[in-house]
């Protein structure tokens, strides 16, 4: 008899768990509340334009542990065209001057030395720290399943990276840039004003360019929607069951003789029940722990995480369909506009403008999709509803349009479609807690820490998804799905496989 795994949530983590479950001979049912799979990895069409909500960079597009996962999930195939941008972002300062962040570390070093020869010492030190993180690689196996040899091999391979990350993991970006002490005004504006206040650990900043520099964090042409579709197709073709438009209300529990509980299935909002041998929750971790499990299995570590770890500030996304070609010399532009407003949001640093002209699937021929995004505190949105919410969207559209026209005066009279998503949109469609689109920030307080995938006192249950690993994003979400099944196979004394077994 196949054991039945029920997976709550059909985002990246849930679909990944479903695929590895099927590859390992389990019956797998993914239950998703939205009417389409993908969770936050999504996009939508408006009058011929496609507005992407997720992938602008994908770690693992060319090699390494994450690349193998994308291949195993069918997300990247030999036919998937990957674009690696030369410039990660162009930064526009309030005086109109610009500053480039090259994707390639060596090129960026040359550029920085040209801009600020007087800061050569600090530049060399920062670039050396960045370069040393290039040997960073992910473990293949789930925690608890690694051998001493795995750790020794990792230590030898990643020696330099581990030293740098160990030194700067608990340091704030502000402390790191203060230590470097750039003096050139353009560098100070970029590092001290734009980056230093990011609540990231300095190590997260140093790792930022490592994957780009190795051309291993590209953009798959087509973006989020076909990416999700390929994974969904793989799950279905392996015989997985996908139930859409069904919201899970509870995880069903049974007391175990000798103490503790066991998850035995799920109850849906309409009262129906799906029994399971094992339940995996790939839904938002906050609602899983405090809602679906009624707060019964909170560890001190999880409690501490949800109370004290910073989360990603949610985003507003303003989408523009432009009925003319707008060449994407720089696909992403970061405009510094600290303290200015878009709608009611006072911008912490500024906003980003993404021009998708490099992806022909995003707009009809001769036209262009452009997206403007800015961070906005959840506090501003949590109680905003009805007319006040609609008014705020109108104000945002007017302000964002004015800012886009300042950047691209040539598109005046050519904006043919507009569309806005707010943190409330994300929460409505995916349940993501407080709109924190990648979960916990990789800050100095949690660097190297993760949430427990298995909860003490609860058998037959695994927690996966972006919240398990601070920093979040698609690769860790997908990896958590893989690890859930690997842990289960180990428990059942069953070999874990990552490809379909050949049939006799
Ligand atoms: C604007 C934006 C840009 C991003 N850019 C990138 C990027 O460039 N690169 C990158 O790697 N990552 C990016 N991310 C982050 C990435 O999208 C997420 O980290 C990842 O998709 C999380 O996957 P997940 O499966 O953990 O969670 P989710 O995608 O949130 O999936 C959870 C799923 O569970 C479902 N669900 C929740 N509760 C229930 C319930 N009670 N019953 C049934 N179903 C339920 C939800 O509907 C959802 O489908 C971006 C995200 C956003 C929003």
Write out key terms for the chains shown.
504 residues, FAD/NAD(P)-binding domain, 3 domains, five-stranded parallel β-sheet, 16 helices, 20% strand, globular, binds flavin-adenine dinucleotide
Architecture blueprint of SSEs:
Layout: E1 4-8, H1 12-23, E2 27-31, E3 43-46, E4 49-52, H2 64-72, E5 82-83, E6 87-92, E7 98-102, H3 105-115, H4 120-132, H5 148-157, H6 159-168, H7 173-180, H8 185-195, H9 202-213, E8 219-220, H10 224-237, E9 241-243, E10 248-255, E11 261-268, E12 273-275, E13 278-281, H11 285-292, H12 300-308, E14 315-322, E15 332-336, E16 341-342, E17 345-346, E18 350-355, E19 368-375, H13 378-381, H14 386-407, E20 415-421, H15 423-430, E21 458-459, E22 461-463, H16 474-491
Parallel strand pairs: 1-2, 1-13, 2-9, 6-15, 11-21, 13-22
Antiparallel strand pairs: 3-4, 5-8, 6-7, 10-11, 11-12, 14-19, 14-20, 15-18, 16-17, 18-19
Would you kindly provide a brief summary of this structure?
The chain has 504 residues and is an alpha/beta fold. 36% of the residues lie in helices and 20% in strands.
Question: Mind explaining what this structure looks like?
Answer:
This protein has 504 residues and is of the alpha/beta class. It has 3 domains: 4-41 and 67-78 and 222-310 and 436-491, FAD/NAD(P)-binding domain (3-Layer(bba) Sandwich), CATH 3.50.50; 103-214, no CATH class; 315-435. Helices cover 36% and strands 20% of the residues. It contains 16 helices and 22 strands. The strands form 6 sheets. Strands 7-6-15-18-19-14-20 form a 7-stranded mixed beta sheet, sandwiched between helices. Strands 9-2-1-13-22 form a 5-stranded parallel beta sheet, covered by helices on one side. Strands 10, 11, 12 and 21 form a 4-stranded mixed beta sheet that branches. Strand 10 (248-255) and strand 11 form a beta hairpin. Helix 3 (105-115) packs antiparallel against helix 4, helix 4 crosses helix 9 (202-213) and helix 6 (159-168) runs antiparallel to helix 9 (202-213). The protein is globular and about 70 Å long. The site of flavin-adenine dinucleotide (FAD) has 40 residues, from helix 1, helix 15 and helix 16.
